[in-house]
């Protein structure tokens, strides 16, 4: 890779251009093994901005590439020209025709769209494994399919219409009644050229045969020239040529899909065969059984699955040698429909030559474990690759009868070229398989090996009558081989398609078509070893949609790749670039990370980028600040009382005065040191006190957050959730004990999140022994009333137990979960709510208590709304006070959804989250248990006010 420019030319096209090295290097990385650094990154807000970018591209002669989710694997989302981020401002979703259709902008993820369609019993046809992160723009641009949709429900078959911005600046709605006439009027050369190509393809019998053969399979190689056979009018041909064009023909501003039934009833199982030959021999029978999904996993895949902590029972005790397996699944609209499918398919399943009996399950948790194994195969292998190597996931398709010899020959090729063991997996009923290589691209000998392997692999697949790309797109990796797959005539047709749409050749050049036979060997990504927390990152981007700072500064993937770029600059001796990156990274990478851990929930290789940020904060923190926090760990009771008094005093003063004082303090000491006071903050809370119990069922630890921040002014509980929980316990006849020394206890999160390890250890040494004794050495559960504090205590316990502290027997339980399991059945709701908005928290998600929250909410109201646009509020202890812009950005989509209608009440399960969501929405959020306490009072029983 050549030297990188750090001072590019600047253009004013678009609303949010980025020319800093940090912006450009962060955006340079996607999920592929290619790396090009853009000259500039723009974030257009609408189709008009995109048209302006296209005009600027033509005027400057600069290439333009559109990027949304960045999950593409073939290099179609990188450029050394102008990169347009089309995720940030293109996320609108509109459900049409009672769910029969849906209109979506390119930045919405497949999961977000399906979440909105679920209430209508519908979903998108394409079902890619990356649905948590891949966006609709990429789904259309790559003609995505997936595990169950095959070729019948892929993007090409289910697309209704597009709004497309053509390279000349024309914005065309292909679903408009006059769309064909408008295309002829505004783009006459394109219109007549498409008609001519249609007739040229149809008039060549060999072209027709080749197109029919290749597109009978999954096929994303080259342009979708099947459109010339499938459609007559130029506007329909244009629409379907855009599908799979990978941003080389125009910008997809909006896509309207015909949806498919969601089929929520499912039965899933793992059919393990003694050999790959036995598995492929059984495939025709399995297809005839009506299975919706038949996912292949080879022997290496199965060995990896056995090593997982949630390995399926079908693999327990099995010595995997030459085995292979199919993950199979029946889908139905109802339980009765599913039962009928299973009964009809039973004869085909009973006679299978299996290594272990096949057991189909409808249990959601069991099914999730099975699918976790299949969906996580690539990232599991890639995450365990040797340091310094880059992961490549290949994607091929062959006619189903050729699946066995293809897989056998692939295994031989991989071994013959010295790659060692690989995994082969994929969509068996489509003949579509994936396999992974790990290669070191900084070594000429390794690069030559990769070239030789690719040539052999291309020969194998084409010799089997297959396609070199089934669903991942041609990209850069297979662009030089399109002519070889289609022949000269159809390749010439594709070249003419590109010329008609983009005569200047500036839209994503080098992607889909390339006349340079070695272009796939250029601009390859190198992965330097940096730090333990993040070295196994494969840059897949699954973490990004859940990140609170994604629209403000950086995502977890970007935080990681920038650390890699810093290491690269350091190794190259580029001190100027290194200094610039370090300076900008302090705010973008460290200060605005909420360390909420939601990235780990989404990450296939379980990276918590917050661990990296915490360590960086530890390294960057000043000695005085560390000393102050270490001191506070030993005097926490006094510290929380003083903070509470300060908040109470501040609430009695004009908020503008207090805000001005804190602004002055921030100007002197720094925004990451002094919190910014706002008039929406409550007065201080009440000091925590011990509570004795004769026969306690649990140890109750009221969170110190409640002592810092008092309850909402409208709350009838003097002590907020603490009063409410104790009242609920009393009402249910359950005794709990609050331990001695409670005032000095904390879950340790304030120290851990800031990287103050000594203070954290000091608090750990205070809290855990006290809870161990109070719980009778683990006999009683320890209950906490703030989800983040519950998670903090569990993290503290797990860390101590792992270090050999002997505290593994402690059981930490959130108050919501405890209430759901032990109190709810003894309570009667006497004053239900008309409606309730419920904000799940990042900690309740990580703890797995969202279902309990929703169940309690369902007891309070028949109209419970969990926002589709839910996300971490990023208040994150004091992060929302230090950097309120972070919380404002993180909550904006959810706030817009919640303020679009009125609710009788708003609830969450964490005091700081309640503050953050109240600030974002202007509505009063309270702890769910406060609402439950109020709703379960009897007319003659006053609320228990003071329990200590």
Structural summary, described in words:
By secondary structure, this protein is α/β, with parallel strands linked by helices. Helices cover 44% and strands 11% of the residues. It contains 38 helices and 24 strands. Strand 7 and strand 8 form a beta hairpin. Helix 1 crosses helix 20 and helix 24 runs parallel beside helix 30. The longest helix is centred in the middle third of the chain and has 20 residues. The radius of gyration is 29 Å and the shape is globular. The N terminus and C terminus are likely disordered.
Quickly count the helices. Answer: 38
Please give the share of residues in helix. 40-55%
The shape is globular
Strand order of the largest sheet: 11-13-12-15-16-14
Largest sheet: 6 strands, antiparallel
Would you identify the regions where 5 or more consecutive residues have pLDDT less than 50?
1-17, 944-948
How many strands in all? Answer: 24
Class by alpha and beta content: alpha/beta
What is the radius of gyration computed over CA atoms, rounded to a whole number of angstroms? 29 Å
Mean pLDDT: 91
Proportion of residues in β-strands:
5-15%
**Beginning-to-end CA distance, first to last residue:** 68 Å
Please tag this protein with its features:
about 950 residues; 6-stranded antiparallel β-sheet; 38 helices; about 45% helix; about 10% strand; disordered C terminus
